[in-house]
Amino acid sequence: MGANDDVISRRHAMTLTEKASLMSGANFWNTKPVERLGVPSIMLTDGPHGLRKQGGAADHLGLNASIPATCFPTAATLANSWDPTLITRVGEALGTEAAAERVSVLLGPGLNIKRNPLSGRNFEYFSEDPFLSGTLAAALIRGIQSHGVAASAKHFAVNSQETHRMSIDEVVDERALHETYLEGFRIAVTAGGAWTIMSSYNKVNGTYANENRMLLTDTLRTRWGWDGLVVSDWGGNNDRVAALEAGSTLEMPSTDGVTDREIVAAVEAGTLDESVLDARVDELLTLIDRTAAATDGTAPAADHDAHHQLAIDAAAQSVVLASNVRGTLPLGPQSGRVAVIGDFAATPRYQGAGSSLVNPTRVDAPLDALRESGLDIIGFEKGFRRRDGASRSLASRALKLARRADVVVLFLGLDESAEAEGIDRAHMRLAQNQLDLTRELIACGVPIVVVLAGGAPVELPFAQDVDAIVLGYLGGQGVGPALAAVLTGEVNPSGKLAESYPLRYSDVPSAASFSRTEASSEHRDSIYIGYRYYDKIGAEVRYPFGHGLSYTTFEYSNLQADATSARVTVTNTGDRAGAEVVQVYLEAPDAAAGQFRAVRELGGFAKVALQPGESAEVEVSFAEHAFSAYDVEAHDWRVAPGTYTVLAGASSRDIRARAEVVIEGAPFDFAADDLPHYVSGQVDRVGADEYSRLLGRELPAADWVRQRPLTRDDIIAQAQGRGGFASLFYTLIITTSRVLMLLGRPHAANNTRFVLDLPFRSIERMSGGMVDADMLDGLLLMVNGRFLRGVRHAFSAWRAHRAIQRAAERN
Prior knowledge:
Blueprint: H1 3-12, H2 16-21, E1 44-46, H3 75-78, H4 84-100, E2 105-107, H5 130-145, E3 150-156, E4 169-171, H6 174-181, H7 183-190, E5 196-199, E6 203-204, E7 207-208, H8 213-223, E8 229-231, H9 240-246, H10 258-269, H11 274-290, H12 304-318, E9 320-324, E10 337-341, H13 343-346, H14 366-371, E11 376-381, H15 392-403, E12 407-413, H16 432-443, E13 448-453, E14 468-473, H17 479-488, E15 520-522, H18 531-537, E16 554-561, E17 565-572, E18 578-587, E19 600-610, E20 615-621, E21 628-631, E22 636-639, E23 642-649, E24 655-663, H19 676-680, H20 688-695, H21 724-742, H22 746-753, H23 761-765, H24 773-783, H25 787-810
Parallel strand pairs: 1-2, 2-3, 3-5, 4-6, 4-15, 5-8, 10-11, 10-12, 12-13, 13-14
Antiparallel strand pairs: 6-7, 9-14, 16-17, 17-20, 18-19, 18-23, 21-22, 23-24
Helix pairs in contact: 1-11, 4-5, 4-12, 5-7, 12-17, 21-22, 24-25
């Protein structure tokens, strides 16, 4: 009997109740077993860049401690390596640690598109480019799954903001949906072979992602031929039966049987065909079989020392040298006296916050590593308060130290409260106290090297006034030795930006609308995200997509191309060994003049290491859809023929060699006379009428209707401003968050605010049986202004609920 036959046999032996029980968790992290049939419980746990298995009471957002595990650089950092081989090694280490802890599913990687720099979860995502995102995510997935642990590509799909993420309707046109937001997931599925996909909380064009048949069946299974399991994000289920029918299998976490009973009732009533439930059960049983080897207790213990060294190497290969205008770097004996300034040097910011918060096995600080490097470190000063706020004494001590130095290494960055799951950033600036200190240090006239920590771009008003800028992003637990190795030249930096750095936030095409509305988020920028937008309109940027300097130089020559690949000779013309990321862009015929089309797009890349004077011919294979576009009339991809210019270079704007290739195919019309701003690329000027024409339908409401009563499907944040108990309920949560922030607990503060985006229905489903449907109805009466009636209803429901519980306990 084959594996498929065995799955079917076990499912046939189950009762309807048993099958329904498998569709939601037993607790926060485990599925339910069917012990009489030998179907085990399996564990799913967080882990985009490190295993987060909680050892005690479980929660989603890190309120309780998890077991020690290696904290690798976040995806936003690893992406700057442009190195699938390196990222596969990180995935293998993650898989090893998960298997050693009998974890079946590691919830990662995240690969949503970095549409806007303020998205609070950008640190968990790879890039603004779908091909780069998908390729690197596929590499991580292959590494994780090589140890029999399932990876879970997330969050599917269009999870572009954290504000109101559990209810927001992401409104996006069909072409942008497939070319931009789904393409990375397609690569993760087809090239990475992900065994699970996690659906996102949000709606996509009016339908929750977890019950969106177009996404979960028509696209994932039919178009892409995927045979894995879809798991909801934690608390991300809306209509359980609709989700099953759409293709979502497992609801997490436990709902204490609430939605299991809904499934049984639907089958018995004939509103859910049992064959749909059977298909979902088969998917879970298949996942259990696929991960059996990782959870049978035979996996070896993880080598945390080796993994720590890998974390250092991965961080070092991902550091981006953004500027080095006076050759101040690398530091060495010639640098003289070095002052280290900035709180992040002693207490590094090395990861994000929320469900990905890893309890590291150790953390090596940059300050310690620099002191051990042989440099003449004459002192350290914090310089500023970590979470803003003026401190003249800290700044004065820093300035005094700087005046004694020959060079200052200044560690700046975003603090722990700035980037987290559940919140979006309010602006793109560094804290004012950091900017003030930087300005005063510049006035001292000492060479300054800025080392920046953070998971997404920030404005850099001082960029032209400092000697070097090093972008360390969030480098994991080995960030200290990694940065020291790059600063001293032990490692020649080879990182390249996986996203564009705009000059200022107002330059971002979605700046005026991002995270500003309540009910829907309009993606008026369509396909023009990141470099596709900046290069289309010729906008100046701080650093272009793909940018990154080296301590050596590289020359490109003899570029040749055909329809499948490009070949170019790269020579290291400097006096240091180094690695170059060869980026190949495809420029549209006639540079897309008068067309609804990007000027150029990344078609492929490869990383090559060269000794001084060494040359190598580098072959770069083109992406599957390199010469294709999504045809909304045919609802499918089509080759767009013409004469393309093949560009090989060191960034989207640093082009070193050119060639041409003719692509055959049926004509594809990119003209759009009724969409003038999509033709020009000036999508920051798109109005409601033009966007409605692009969508082919009327726009949904942008904000909540405040006059109507709140329902189970509304989120708790909608209680704001309604007066009475509703406002009290809202204010209590906000006040708790503010108090926690004042107490210096930013993670807990942000996690408390997360509650505001929970739908009221989640109170019943995630209460562990403490709240039932009638009690929830009483709460809704209270928030809708019928306080006394609601109290009576809730109290009566509670008494009935307790009576049922006591009877069950007696039996």
